[in-house]
Amino acid sequence: xxxxxxxxxxxxxxxxxxxxxxxxxxxxxxxxxxxxxxxxxxxxxxxxxxxxxxxxxxxxxxxxxxxxxxxxxxxxxxxxxxxxxxxxxxxxxxxxxxxxxxxxxxxxxxxxxxxxxxxxxxxxxxxxxxxxxxxxxxxxxxxxxxxxxxxxxxxxxxxxxxxxxxxxxxxxxxxxxxxxxxxxxxxxxxxxxxxxxxxxxxxxxxxxxxxxxxxxxxxxxxxxxxxxxxxxxxxxxxxxxxxxxxxxxxxxxxxxxxxxxxxxxxxxxxxxxxxxxxxxxxxxxxxxxxxxxxxxxxxxxxxxxxxxxxxxxxxxxxxxxxxxxxxxxxxxxxxxxxxxxxxxxxxxxxxxxxxxxxxxxxxxxxxxxxxxxxxxxxxxxxxxxxxxxxxxxxxxxxxxxxxxxxxxxxxxxxxxxxxxxxxxxxxxxxxxxxxxxxxxxxxxxxxxxxxxxxxxxxxxxxxxxxxxxxxxxxxxxxxxxxxxxxxxxxxxxxxxxxxxxxxxxxxxxxxxxxxxxxxxxxxxxxxxxxxxxxxxxxxxxxxxxxxxxxxxxxxxxxxxxxxxxxxxxxxxxxxxxxxxxxxxxxxxxxxxxxxxxxxxxxxxxxxxxxxxxxxxxxxxxxxxxxxxxxxxxxxxxxxx
Length: 640
Fold this sequence. Notes:
alpha+beta, five-stranded mixed beta sheet, three-stranded antiparallel beta sheet, 29 helices
């Protein structure tokens, strides 16, 4: 076997007729568009991009142990765009080198969340909101919402490129002659969208494009792929090296040790990634396929896999007084080696998981996907409790279980207290077999929750009325953080702690406007991928960076960061509003955004004008209470 691979060989990995396969012990894709774009610039400049590590398997083939992200980037380059493509790589064949970039070749990525592409700097920064709006207009998509309307990447292109062409058209074109090369590409370009043809002035530029391809790009591609073939080296790990078990305290296999070490210097690998990699390695493709299918558009597959295994093991032993803990990598391997345990887990998941997940989806359908994902990511055992209750055929809506989950999510004192509450509820239901007599069962469960409140596993929950009676924002005094109610107010009013409460309060607005925003990956939570921005209703700049000597600056700064001064609104609306007192969008969506026109009486003079400062404090307090009341009304059935 040669010690290097060509680009075309690498792009073919993973297919059934290829000698290199992707092992179970690999994680999902984690590279950013920037990394993919710069990798291809390096390839075109004949720079080395690092190597791969392969291992022999028992079938005479090889597993890719290290370099999956590079492999995926190369394969994406060779993948021709289709209507349903999740991402497309382009090359600007008329690139003018930018001052803020080290690139020689401009490879551009477009994605479902960024169909207009990214800026041309080395960090592939995102476009500004007005630039995204202009791009949609350029695509003849004025007014479209990429998180609500169906948009195909075949109808878009990277707007920062001068003359973008799908990279795969160049990489897959015949190289027998420059004319064969260009004509093949031209024939494919003929089928691109009308907006792309308008962008490049297709009818008048066709000959120039053909000449450009033949003169400037045919020699490069011919050299890369035929004459002086660009290759990537690899290291080969003999089968014996990974089949032997390492006798250590943790009893990790050499395979696990190697994978962990290989990933130490690259993009960080989480414990969940490694656990799921172990599941895939020891439980096989059918199990992996099932989990991946169930997790799609719901949550990271490693999270769901671990939760389902825990649910299966908990169900296997009805005498447990709490849920089985998350298995270690060693336990995952040992379960796979115990035929009875493995069969039980597999049978449980294959027979029950579809119904469990579907019922859980139905139960959560009234919540924004972003809030569901935050709950799963921060308190995964709450979802485990939901799956258990669904499996036990308890009527989730009738018993107000989602209300209970959010109560525990928001008001448990900490993660340990939350898990203690979850296990107490599990033990109670497991012992009492809840579900036969609704009225008595619900009251019994409610008493369990009340006991948890008394045991201080959860915070004491004050009512909106109690808060309104205690706090007097018109005094222009910053609330203290000394008494129980003052501490509680601080925790439910500080936006930096309570963004999810705002999301809940605005749930009708968010579900209506962003039905296609499904953040199943943590990367999708990044503000560059999130479709809304958190707007300061009264702009922060009306106080920030201004003289500390202004009489009401301190109190204004306090109320600027209360939840009542924030709204989750579309990026384009927030950016156009900017530091201006523009509230037409708020007026239009007043009910969904819990907006009061009284705030419009506040001006930029609020830090030096007492009347303005009082209006701002009172209105922000009132809106914070309105937001909190939405939360309180939803959960109060469990403790009032």
